Every structure is written in structure tokens, then in C-alpha cells.
Amino acid sequence: MKSIHVVAAVILDEHDNVLIARRPDDKHMGGLWEFPGGKVEAGEPVTDALSRELDEELGIQPTAWEPLIRIHHSYPDKTVLLDVWTVTAFTGHAHGREGQLVRWVSKSELSSYEFPEANKPILSAALLPNRYGITGSYNGLEELARRVTNGLDQGMDMICFRAPWLSSDEYREHLEYLIPLFSGTPLKLIVKGSLELLKEDGIDGLHLTFAQLEELDRKGWRIEREAVPDGKILIASCHNSAQLEMAARIGVTCATLSPVLATDSHPDAKPLGWEATHALLERATVPVYCLGGLGENNLNQCVQAGAQGVASIRDWWNI
Ligand SMILES: Nc1nc2c([nH]c(=O)n2[C@H]2C[C@H](O)[C@@H](COP(=O)(O)OP(=O)(O)OP(=O)(O)O)O2)c(=O)[nH]1
Ligand SMILES: [Mg+2]
After folding, report:
1. Which of 8, 17, 155, 239 is in the most buried spot, having the most CB atoms within 10 Å?
2. Topology (CATH level 3) of domain 3-111
3. 290 CA from centroid of ligand 1 (Å)
4. C-alpha–C-alpha distance, residues 314 and 120, integer Å
5. Nearest 5°: phi and psi at 243?
6. How far apart are CA 131 and CA 157, in angstroms?
């Protein structure tokens, strides 16, 4: 089946609200909410299509944008490539020029609207930050708290607490020490361990190892509300296309892909390099953080390549 190339926009205002529109009842996916956009015309540059569609549908002219995610999705009746951009500035006043209902909603309200099936990873991508910090080595609770606080102060919005050298009792003790730093804030605390942890207050997400991912997939496990409460984040460590496919099949929120470049923390792992990374990102159907030998300096490069952003240890931990 031929794929139709569609450009769509997650349009943000200065308060980080998102513009959504209701698809007319008589169209494909009619009655569902969508991110405004439409079909790219033959030979038309994608960002020209973005500007044209937003003008036609909403009467606005985007002035600043960056790629968010590209999703290949097959519906029973058609296959689409959704090429989604974040629009952070525009001129004009947004209104439904084609008679469609449009609404500005806060990010936390997005989950109460019904979108087409292909939009699940787009919604995740819109909610996730673009930097993901994984904790490095430390000596004692005081240093742990200091380095984590430091990272949060520098704008690291999502942090994975990883400390494989600790016993599980010690890990738990250190985790309890970290939870208050995150509670009552929009900052996300991601942990390592069993799925049960996702049900606990104060824990925002779980980062699965690739071995856990493969085990869950082997068992035919799929994400459902009971195991992964609404709003909780499930991340999978992936190193190849098979694992990225498993991650999508299971229904994780996002994945890390590593090692993109050589890294001291895993000297034996062969780096993917940029070419293979680009190819894997293009096929991925969940948001992906590039990991391994990367840092803040590579953020733009990763976003332009189609990633959600950058995950790093060394880069933020030791400052
Ligand atoms: N714009 C948009 N389309 C989406 C989203 N999610 C999703 O599955 N789609 C699908 C539905 C449609 O099959 C296709 C978009 O085509 P469209 O009908 O809006 O295209 P268009 O604006 O050029 O409309 P038309 O003038 O050709 O009727 O992509 C989304 O969030 N935004
Ligand atoms: Mg449209």
C-alpha cells in the first residue's frame, strides 16, 4: 500500500499549551482530535507544506519549528508517514478556518482527548523532555543528592536513578532519599527494577534493561492500565532494530538507543555510528533518546536526526 506523507504540528503557546483540532466527521479518522496539518504535495518541501497547511487550516504562519518525530503507521485502509514538527512561534491568530473545532489545551489535558491510533507516540513525544540524565557513580547519599539537585537546577527534567553496584536494600534506601527532591514538581524520577515499582507514588517511570524487555516480549506481555498507571513512563534500553520493534510492540513510552558513539562506560560495546543511528531512528515508532558518548552539545544533532533528544551520564553528572 502506498504511504501518504502527512505533515502535522504540535503548536505551543508561551504557556506551553498545545493547539488541537477536531477532524471533520466525514474525513478519514473523522471526529477524532488531531494535530493540525495535512498531505505534503508532490515535490513540496516538508516545511513548506507545514507553513501552507497551518495557514490554510488555522490562519497562522509558523516562524520557528523543529522536528519532533516521524511515524510510519498502517491503518486498515491506508498507510501514513506522519512527519511531526514542534512549532514554537507563529504570527496570526489561530482559528478553525475550515469550520473545525480548535482548542488550546495544557499538556496534562491531552490524555483526555481521543486521537487516531498513530498519534500515541506523538503524544508521548510532546510530553517528554529532550534531555534525559542517567546518574553516574557517587560516594554516599550526600553526594548523590548534591549531583541530582545540581542536574535539576541545570534544567535536567527527567533523571534515571541507576546504581548497579548497590544491593537492592541500599538502592531502595537511596531512592527514598531522592523521592522528596522530585515530589510536587513536574520533574520526572525514573528508576531501575521491577514493574511493580511503577505503581508507587513518587516514582514517575521505570527504565527496563534490554534483557527485561526481551523477557517481557517473550511472555507476550503488553502494556495495560493496571500495570502502567496513566501518566507513568516506561523506557526500554535498545541497541538494535529488533529491540526497538519489541519496545513498540509492548507499548513502551520511549526508548534509549545505544551506544551511538564510543563510550568509556561500555568499552566493549561496538558503537552504532551516525549512519546506522539515522536508519534506526527513521524506522522507530516510539520516541528515542540517543545514548552513548553524547551530551548536551549533541542535542540539536540528535533532534534533527529524528530523535526525541539526548540521554547522558558523564555529561551532566560530573559538573
Ligand atoms: N493532520 C493530521 N493527520 C493525522 C493525524 N493523525 C493521523 O493519523 N492523521 C492521518 C489522518 C489522515 O489519514 C491523514 C491526514 O490527512 P488529511 O485528510 O488531514 O489531509 P489534508 O489536511 O491535506 O486534507 P484534505 O484537504 O486532503 O482532505 O493523516 C494528526 O495528528 N494530524
Ligand atoms: Mg488536514
Report:
1. 8
2. Nucleoside Triphosphate Pyrophosphohydrolase (3.90.79)
3. 29
4. 31
5. -70, -35
6. 7
C-alpha cell belonging to residue 315: 555529561
Q: Delimit the CATH 3.20.20.70 region(s) of the chain.
A: 131-317
Substitution candidate for ligand 1 out of 1, 39, 50, 81 with most atoms within 8 A of CB:
39
CB contact burial 161-197 (16+ within 10 A = b; e otherwise): bbbeeeeeeebeebbeebeeebeeeebbbbbbbeeeb
Q: Which ligand 1 atom sits nearest the alpha carbon of residue 53?
A: 22
Residues within a 6 A CB radius of ligand 1: 6, 8, 27-29, 34-35, 37-39, 78, 80, 82, 116, 118-119
CATH 3.90.79.10 intervals, the chain:
3-111
Q: Tens of pLDDT along 32-81?
A: 999 999 999 999 999 999 999 999 999 999 999 999 999 999 999 999 99
Site to substitute for ligand 1 among 5, 34, 48, 75, most atoms within 8 A of C-beta = 34
Strand blocks (E) in 23-91: 33-34, 37-39, 61-74, 79-91
Counting as low any pLDDT under 50, the low residues of the chain are none
pTM, two decimals, is 0.95
Could you please state the CATH topology (level 3) that the domain comprising 131-317 is classified under. Answer: TIM Barrel (3.20.20)
Q: Grid coordinates 555529561 are at which residue?
A: 315
